[in-house]
Amino acid sequence: MVESPQSQNALSPDELHEAWAVLSADERLEGFRLLPPAVADDFFLGLTAREQAELILSLPQGERRTWVRLLPPDDLADLVQAVEPEQVDAILSQLDDASRREVNVLLAYSEDDAGGLMNPRFARVRPDMSIDEAIGYLRKQAREKVETVYYAYVLDAEQRLQGVLSLRQLFQAAPDKRVADVMQRDVITVAENTDQEAVSRTFSEHSFMAMPVVDEQRRMKGIVTVDDIVDVVQEEATEDIQKVGGMEALDAPYFDVGFLAMLKKRAGWLMVLFLGEMLTATAMGYFEHEIARAVVLSLFIPLIISSGGNSGSQATTLIIRSLALSEMRLKDWWRVARRELSTGLALGAVLGVVGFTRVMVWQALFHSYGDHAFLIGMTVGVSLVGVVMFGTLSGSMLPFILRRVGFDPASASAPFVATLVDVSGLVIYFTAASLFLRGTLL
Amino acid sequence: MVESPQSQNALSPDELHEAWAVLSADERLEGFRLLPPAVADDFFLGLTAREQAELILSLPQGERRTWVRLLPPDDLADLVQAVEPEQVDAILSQLDDASRREVNVLLAYSEDDAGGLMNPRFARVRPDMSIDEAIGYLRKQAREKVETVYYAYVLDAEQRLQGVLSLRQLFQAAPDKRVADVMQRDVITVAENTDQEAVSRTFSEHSFMAMPVVDEQRRMKGIVTVDDIVDVVQEEATEDIQKVGGMEALDAPYFDVGFLAMLKKRAGWLMVLFLGEMLTATAMGYFEHEIARAVVLSLFIPLIISSGGNSGSQATTLIIRSLALSEMRLKDWWRVARRELSTGLALGAVLGVVGFTRVMVWQALFHSYGDHAFLIGMTVGVSLVGVVMFGTLSGSMLPFILRRVGFDPASASAPFVATLVDVSGLVIYFTAASLFLRGTLL
């Protein structure tokens, strides 16, 4: 059987999408060119802004225009922000004057604001139109360049937003009514400079498909659509997860970050944690004599301090996420503190009992801990209660404190809390030891 | 001045929404009843299914119907799943027979599947309709009960999906063309039992506003809209963050989880980690003689093992998130392993140098570490390189291994990796110590 080289190499769009991250620039170009024209558009629109930019720049000059012009202005603005400054012209020169102006207006907004997310092309009608006129006018706009027509926005002559009509309301209304009679006047809007996280919260509170962006005079500037919000939500969640893991947010997929850039994002926090953790060496120095007299005490140090770190890590992640989702606010700290104190006591009691039992069982089986096993068991058990309570409480309060002083609560990462608790855990442990073992081992 | 009691107590919808979590059931009901009728609908639709259920059940019988009937079938199905089994009838009895049947069909799907997310009411047209007939038919459907009309789905007589038309395409087409001539035949669909995470990935690859759900015979069952996907993405991210923090996913807002339920979600993993961490006490037992001969060694134990935990925590969170976002797949493990090995070496070298310097500086300033400070410094520095490399490598590989054997990679939580690294970190440290200090301190 003879196959054409095309059918041998061509990947389906889904296969190509899956393999994209691991393909070289040449392979990407080749795979893309082998896609049937009918699906290539959809495939291209599904790429991230960075991937679109790389693909376009790997095409010869003559082939770029089609793809650049396929993108709506908001996506073009993202794409321009993903390329090196010297390549911006290579992209923008492919556009007609009107579109280039639209993109330049969008570029003036910060990428993380509502203005940076919005599409300046939206469906508009006048308040004095009849319903039938409005539907006809929308059909005309859809034929030209408005791509999203879920809502028709009612603007006066000064472009100020007067009301909104969903397509459903428009279709439901009697054809001879006027727009002003049926429109909803109470429109929920976002300001141009509203942060994207706040925009996504407004979306999830109201389940709209799109929201209008207005300036201070309530002049309408564009719409943010919910499909862009999905990406915002993913991005913000990724940032939070990476911060919770104890590093700077990467802002790009793993394989797209260079070796040195990756090192920088990780070494910074690792060094801060390391310097903090050095205090444990200092703290241990204070207890050197106790350790020398009762080496057995040192055996439980990793167990005790890590239990504090683990319970603190649970508490801090819980609170960081609840704050991010607005399930709680700053002024709820006292309610959280009381609750975490009792949770910490219960969790500490459970671990304390198991820790005490571990010491007594090993003593019965192997005589591991000499004459004072009971007192050592008490030291371990009581320290665990204290350390877990302290870990839970400080893990839950740290995100509130960070937000209060203006930092991102997600910086109260699991390793950060663990480091904090390690130092104080040592103090708690050796204090308990001196209470129980003074006069016997110490 | 005399104010009516109403104006004194009434909160704005936004204020009420913000305060909702901390209000009692009675306060919620009161605040809700004081809302102006025009905004109460929107406010109600913005509540979560659980909050809607609680509110409806706190209303007297006679007032429930309006609110139950305001909800589309997919939201009703969520609401029914949020109430106790014995209260389902109190909700469903408010519906007309047709809607109750729709909700019951949806309830047969698993909550986390496309079928459980979908709305069975969608806009449909026939392939042989003219464009003008299709628009007229859509207007009729919008007047009845279809609420989302972003796409018109083209179904044959057996309800099999033949194609799709966006409203824009419909509006753009010449009025006398037939639907079959302009529709797009290549429709991306999801199956009824597709998992919601996979559905959200398909959405983010294609930026659609809605996607059709079909059965095995390609009969169309409903649509999933992107606004529901925002919630899915938030939910999945919350689950991942909580697992990364070392606990079971809560599945509900912090304040909605009872004290005992919260304890259970946290105590399970904390106990697993504690039992794992007990191995450190066993490991330390093996090195008890070394510690007794050189107590100074014990001072650096928390510093060394926590550095391994921190670097492992960074690596594991990075990989967990990349796997969740499909930025990498199982077969990329080797590429990741090579990269993390060099990253770990670089990070370990940085910390190792700082650790060695710390020992030498303290020695110069305070003579803290006796005659063999240089060798102790070497032990600390070299162990840090080894521990950080081991932490980075095992933190990055564990999520791959978990996925390979069928578990959720997010279970490779930061505390889990830290525990793993603590035990092996002790072995690495004492091995380095015996290499450098044999014949002098040991």
UniProtKB/TrEMBL annotation, chains A, B:
GO terms for cellular component: plasma membrane. The keyword Transport applies. It holds the Pfam family MgtE. Gene3D superfamilies: CBS-domain (3.10.580.10), MgtE N-terminal domain-like (1.25.60.10), SLC41 divalent cation transporters, integral membrane domain (1.10.357.20). Keywords: CBS domain, Cell membrane, Magnesium, Membrane, Metal-binding, Transmembrane, Transmembrane helix, Transport. One of its GO terms (molecular function) is metal ion binding. The chain crosses the membrane at residues 267-287, 299-320, 341-361, 373-402, 414-437. Acts as a magnesium transporter. This is Magnesium transporter MgtE. It comes from Corallococcus carmarthensis. The gene is mgtE.
